[in-house]
Design goal:
This protein has 565 residues and is an alpha+beta fold. It has 15 helices and 20 strands. It has a domain of 188 residues: Dipeptide-binding Protein, Domain 3 (Dipeptide-binding Protein, domain 3, Roll). Strands 1, 7, 8, 9, 10, 11, 12, 15, 16, 17 and 18 form an eleven-stranded mixed beta sheet that branches. A three-stranded antiparallel beta sheet has the order 4-6-5, covered by helices on one side. A two-stranded antiparallel sheet has the order 2-3.
């Protein structure tokens, strides 16, 4: 199977035989490898995909998205809508009815109190929650009885499916996390490393940035699932080593995020042990621009907090930086058929994607002219332009990955051609995306001028994701450096438009507003978009039930995985 054919559909799946579950745990062990190692199993304290997805095997939301992007019930029997009476006619409330009889893995009852507590946990004013935008506009979460959850919004909310929906917004057990509210959240090591869940697996051992050992949840709600008795979830290494371990040596059963050149993937597939699966969702590789000052001369409570950035706040600078980039070459070098040129923060669904003229054209001469016209010139002959006496000297950081280091090298060269001095830095992905408030190297702290990464969102409506540009969502010391507005972008116009989106029901108008928000992010210096990336992973030929999902956690249906006999 060629990589090109894999990318033609929205998602590809692989199954040689129908599931045949004889008994829970009857298929022994499954081995999963994520080359970015999980560092925590609480998604509310990390924005890292590897943390969200590993946790999704253990803790679950009320509803999630399937491989088609459709919202499906998970811990409920029905997704509430206006038509079935679950969403109020005035769109100010949504009522979820929990499926009776679900228990936590410790055997205790899963109730509405756990759902209400999760809201209290994430919204606590003294805490830091990485998923706070999921609860934007929520006025209250009430529990009339043990199986009923009523979420009331401050105003009509046409898209009420932010809270408790998707892998990024699961339910925490109140009994386990009751002492972890507010500032105490990050100190609850036992809870954050070993959450009690309703999912198909339970944690036996968690070694941060290394390995998770799990076993089948004996109290899982489906009697004959999961098929696997044990999971070894290995983290670390490289994308290349992960792909080799599945497709060539057969040492592992599933490898995530094979961010590798197309010819490398094709060579691995020749090993005959595994199959790549791929699909395009909203995943965008981008360069985030620090809107604050990351100078090491500032104190820890000021660095990446004080505004503005000495020169990245100037449109001439960040627009010239964007113009200097050859995006088609980046796609060719890094992703081939698994990448597309894009300057849209939300590249999919198509209804929310913007089309930027000139995005696919590199213009070094135009970039130099733009800087010249703005008076940002080299005054001392050292080859580096200055703005108001400050050299255009930047620290450009990203996670350690062969493709990203190739991108860094190329972009450094192009930015050098427009008079910028660039220092490159790469950080182990487990640390970079880890969310440790004590580490200076996380992407949330952003102790650099620009940083490159990709992320995505659950579902097909980007309202909560676009909320990552809201002024009050910037990571700060008093939020324990949690927050989704990584670039510290702040625009009253953006905030007002997002509030309008939150109150708009008409899909055509939601599309228009969403595109306008994406345009502001690009035009006003939140980010420099690079590549619309397809998700590309691989599984062993003996692993059945895998259905790649680009709209939720890749491990969304791990309870259905089984060994093909």
């Amino acid at each position: 199977m060629k990589l090109k054919s894999l990318m033609l559909g929205a998602a590809a799946s692989f199954a040689l035989a129908p599931a045949a579950f004889a008994e829970r745990g009857g298929d022994g062990e499954v081995k999963i490898i994520y080359w970015q190692a999980p560092s925590i199993l609480n998604p509310f304290l990390s924005g890292g995909t590897k943390d969200v997805e590993s946790a999704s095997m253990i803790i679950e939301p009320l509803a999630r998205y399937n491989e088609k992007g459709e919202l499906v019930p998970w811990l409920v029997n029905e997704v509430p809508t206006v038509a079935n009476g679950g969403v109020s006619e005035d769109l100010t409330s949504i009522t979820w009815k929990l499926t009776p009889g679900i228990t936590w893995s410790d055997g205790s009852a899963f109730t509405s109190a756990d759902v209400a507590f999760t809201y209290e946990y994430c919204s606590h004013p003294e805490g830091g929650c990485a998923q706070l935008t999921k609860f934007e506009g929520v006025k209250s979460v009430e529990t009339p009885d043990d199986t009923t959850v009523v979420i009331t919004f401050e105003s009509p909310t046409p898209n009420p499916y932010g809270p408790f929906v998707g892998g990024e917004s699961p339910i925490l057990q109140k009994a386990q996390f009751a002492s972890c509210l507010g500032a105490a959240s990050s100190t609850c090591t036992e809870q954050n490393f070993n959450p009690i869940g309703t999912g198909p697996f339970v944690v036996d051992e968690f070694k941060p940035n290394d390995v998770i050992v799990m076993s089948a949840n004996q109290n899982y709600r489906v009697a004959d699932k999961p098929a696997f008795a044990k999971v070894t979830f290995k983290g670390g290494g490289s994308a290349a080593a992960s792909g080799t371990a599945v497709m060539e040596t057969g040492e592992f059963d599933y490898a995530w995020n094979l961010q590798l050149a197309p010819d490398v993937i094709a060579k691995m597939q020749e090993g005959g042990k595994g199959t790549p699966v791929a699909g395009f969702g909203p995943l965008l590789e981008r360069i985030m621009l620090n809107n604050t000052n990351p100078s090491p001369d500032l104190g820890p409570d000021e660095r990446s907090v004080i505004r503005p950035h000495p020169f990245l706040s100037d449109p001439a600078v960040y627009k010239a930086m964007s113009m200097a980039i050859d995006r088609p070459l980046l796609v060719e070098v890094g992703y081939g058929q698994a990448g597309r040129v894009s300057c849209s923060w939300v590249p999919a669904p198509e209804a929310f994607a913007i089309d930027v003229e000139g995005c696919d054209v590199q213009d070094i001469a135009g970039a130099n002219k733009m800087l010249d016209d703005a008076g940002i010139v080299d005054t001392d002959g050292d080859g580096i332009r200055e703005k108001d006496g400050v050299p255009l000297s930047i620290l450009y950081q990203t996670s350690t990955n062969a493709v990203r280091q190739d991108f860094q090298a190329l972009i450094k060269e192009w930015w050098g051609e427009i008079g910028m001095e660039v220092e490159l830095r790469n950080i182990d992905g487990s640390v970079f995306f880890g969310g440790d408030a004590g580490s200076p190297d996380t992407f949330q702290k952003f102790y650099a001028d620009v940083e490159m990464y990709a992320n995505t969102f659950n579902g097909t409506d980007p309202q909560a994701y676009l909320g990552n540009g809201l002024c009050d969502k910037a990571p700060r010391p008093d939020s324990q450096w949690q927050g989704e507005n990584i670039s510290r972008f702040c625009s009253e116009e953006f905030d007002a438009l997002h509030a309008k989106l939150s109150a708009t029901a008409d899909m055509a108008e939601r599309s228009r507003i969403g595109k306008e928000l994406g345009t502001i992010a690009f035009e006003q210096g939140m980010m420099i978009p690079l590549v619309h990336r397809g998700r590309l992973s691989a599984h062993s030929n003996s692993l059945g039930g895998v259905v790649l999902n680009v709209w939720d956690s890749e491990l969304w249906n791990v309870a259905d995985w089984h060994r093909i006999k």
